[in-house]
């Protein structure tokens, strides 16, 4: 997806990706592609699975303690978390997609926009 990409499926909620989330996804995909193309494809499918789930169940992510209304949805088979907030319009705004070993940036403590 491109920067600021939006995805809407039927009556499901919209999912918006921040430019940082898009960059995170590209970086992770590139790292997995260097290992094996099939692994990169599996990573992309896992991300798509999380996005699809969030369109249906936007509250399904686990609240992140100490970060207000920030939630994390984990990828299956990969050590990554999708960090997101719900906007005032009920959209899912994905802020970052980070490896479990990465620190959560303080910027995610800011209130959601939109």
TrEMBL record:
Protein name: Type II toxin-antitoxin system RelE/ParE family toxin
Superkingdom per UniProt: Bacteria
InterPro entries on file: RelE/ParE_toxin, RelE/ParE_toxin_dom_sf, TA_system_RelE-like_toxin
Species classification: Bacteria, Bacillati, Actinomycetota, Actinomycetes, Propionibacteriales
Pfam family, one: ParE_toxin
Keywords, sorted A to Z: Toxin-antitoxin system
Family per similarity comment: Belongs to the RelE toxin family.
């Amino acid at each position: 997806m491109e920067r600021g990409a939006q995805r809407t499926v039927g009556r499901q909620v919209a999912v918006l990706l921040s430019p940082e989330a898009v960059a995170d996804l590209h970086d992770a995909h590139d790292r997995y592609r260097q290992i094996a193309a099939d692994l990169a494809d599996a990573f992309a499918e896992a991300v798509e699975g999380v996005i699809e789930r969030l369109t249906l169940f936007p509250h399904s992510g686990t609240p992140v303690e100490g970060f207000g209304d920030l939630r994390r949805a984990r990828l299956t088979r990969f050590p990554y978390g999708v960090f997101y907030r719900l906007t005032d319009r009920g959209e899912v705004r994905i802020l970052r997609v980070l490896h479990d070993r990465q620190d959560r940036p303080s910027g995610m403590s800011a209130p959601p926009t939109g």
